[in-house]
Automatic annotation (TrEMBL):
Principal cellular location given in the protein's record: nucleus
Any one GO cellular component localisation term in the record: nucleus
Protein name: (apollo) hypothetical protein
Keywords carried by this UniProt record: Metal-binding, Nucleus, Zinc, Zinc-finger
Keyword Metal-binding (UniProt): yes
Localization terms from the record: Nucleus
Gene Ontology terms, MF aspect: zinc ion binding
Keyword Membrane belongs to the record: no
Top-level taxon of the source organism: Eukaryota
């Protein structure tokens, strides 16, 4: 039976250095062999404030013109759809829609209509009223604004 000498600390350090050098892979080779961890992370960058305001206004216009309920923003599938379209946009709540955004868009549209009426040369309003067994009664007011003289 032979007794092997115990390696000194300097010998162990040299062995460890040799192992590290053999296992060392240059950084450029790591990136070439596969994706990095950051490739699997979705970065959610916030949108600029003006872009958020544009999207909020367009959402209000879509809801108003399409006769959708404000509850639309609470539907899970709609929220997923918006998230897939743009990770940086967060839908407003129903309360924000009704108390802030809807009045803001309403006032903006109302001002635009007032400006159009102020510049109008002539305004014609057509009315129609009817009665139906199914729908009850109805009245239609259809304004037409002429902004140029003939």
């Amino acid at each position: 039976m032979s007794i092997e000498p115990v390696p000194s600390c300097s010998d162990l350090a040299q062995v460890q250095t040799n192992i590290n050098e053999q296992l060392r892979v240059p950084n450029r080779q790591i990136h070439q062999t596969g994706p990095s961890m950051t490739d699997y992370v979705v970065r959610k960058k916030p949108l600029p404030i003006n872009r958020m305001q544009q999207l909020d206004e367009q959402l209000v216009r879509m809801i108003a013109k399409g006769y959708h309920t404000l509850r639309l923003v609470e539907e899970v599938e709609f929220r997923k759809f918006i998230e897939m379209l743009n990770h940086g946009y967060t839908l407003p709540t129903r309360k924000t829609l009704s108390e802030s955004l809807l009045p803001k868009v309403y006032n903006k549209v109302m001002e635009a209509v007032k400006m159009k009426i102020a510049k109008a040369v002539a305004i014609c309003i057509t009315t129609d009223a009817w009665t139906s067994i199914v729908n009850g009664t109805g009245t239609l007011l259809s304004p037409r604004i002429s902004s140029t003289q003939k």
